Amino acid sequence: MAQLWGGRFTKETDKLVYNFNASISFDQKFYEQDIRGSKAHVKMLAKQGILTEKERDQILEGLEGILADVKAGRLAITSEYEDIHSFVEANLIDRIGDPGKKLHTGRSRNDQVALDMKLYVRDEIDEIDQEVKSLLEALQKIMEENVHTYMPGFTHLQKAQPVTLAHHVGAYFEMFRRDRGRLFDIRKRMNTCPLGAGALAGTTYPLDREYTAQLLDFDEPTRNSMDSVSDRDYVIELLSALSTVMMHLSRFSEEIILWNSNEYRFVEIDDAYSTGSIMPQKKNPDIAELVRGKTGRVYGALTSILTTMKGIPLAYNKDMQEDKELTFDAIDTVKGCILLFTGMIDTMTFNKDVMEASTKHGFTNATDAADYLVNHGVPFRDAHGIVGQLVLFCEEKGIALDDMTLEEYKAISPVFEDDIYEAISLETCVNKRITIGAPGPEAMEKVIKIYKEYLSK
After folding, report:
1. Cα angle at 326 between 323 and 327, to 5 degrees?
2. Residue 413 appears among annotated catalytic residues
3. How is residue 12 annotated by DSSP?
4. The one catalytic residue among 156, 240, 248, 456
5. 38 annotated active-site
6. pTM, whole model, 2 decimals?
7. Would you call 284 helix, strand, or coil by DSSP?
8. Digit-coded pLDDT (tens) for 5-58
9. What is the mean pLDDT of residues 411-440?
10. Confidence band (pLDDT; 50, 70, 90) for 457?
11. Contacts of 232 (CB under 8 A, 6+ apart)
């Protein structure tokens, strides 16, 4: 097929060079965005008197036909075309003749692809945001149902203090809430329209760039034509934000994998989100493991685009074509991971009795035993040493602090009285932590209410 830009060349492009240069195999993904941008451009050209109303209507009708035919599978996007822009323009000319040749008036493929990529990324941000919101709703449900479900809180993967499942899950709610905030910030910052920037220096046609931006729901047109065609900051920002989403998913997946192990047995993963093995006793947390594994894939996309962009002088260079495949793949990966992860945790069963027993036998109430002594006049340094003796005693006997007799307590420190049992009970250890952000039910109910209001917007 003759290239739309071929007037300057006397020799046909070598087939290998053509294939290496072509982007149709992946940029066909945003055919809808390309046609949406073309429709807005044509409307603006007619408004400015650059096209007649008749030409505008012919072109719009032709573009609508192409869009409908591609969606319905009647028109295939093939490697016959170099890129999605060439596909749309060539098919338009085939359908409506000479008016179709005016589609490209006042624009370049450089500002056109910049527009398409922005429209695509913006659409995908909206979809990812809704998926993250659904994940947050699943977390919110778990929190509401588990304000009084006790479990160990960990540091260094060692049991530290008692918390609740609601409190633990709330930490991930905060992470994913921040992820939504990042997506919102990126969308707002990138929402400027590059169309009309031309190849790099604008155009002599009297374009109304503000009108084009308005038609495409941008806040305003871009303010520098060279930056307009060479900016991929929003892609880098998105891949950075998606890497953070995946990091959060991976951390949570790691915990679920641990909780699913025979040593913990905190959770039971639904059959739909796990697999069996040649060893009949096993139930593998495959979805959690795959999410954890695919995190590196998204990190790779971020590293790739940063490396690609670091040495590119102004303005557009063909290197920038490399932004698409890795971004498309990262977006698809993240969307799939969020969707499956949400389904997994929404159907997961928590073994509350096992969690509580683990909390009691992990000396998570040791700090509260020390606080008890301090409240009875024992210096903190001495209290710390006394509780260390208690733990050593319990470890030797294979019991929990709650299982010690009062005589055994008094043998180590005469300060202990009957009220030690209430002081170190899980209910007391958790409930007395009432400051906002703590695991106590009073504090948790306040936070859950805040989360409900956040999700209702």
Report:
1. 70
2. no
3. P
4. 156
5. no
6. 0.91
7. strand
8. 455 555 555 666 766 667 788 889 999 999 999 999 999 999 999 999 999 999
9. 94
10. confident
11. 117, 305, 309, 320, 323
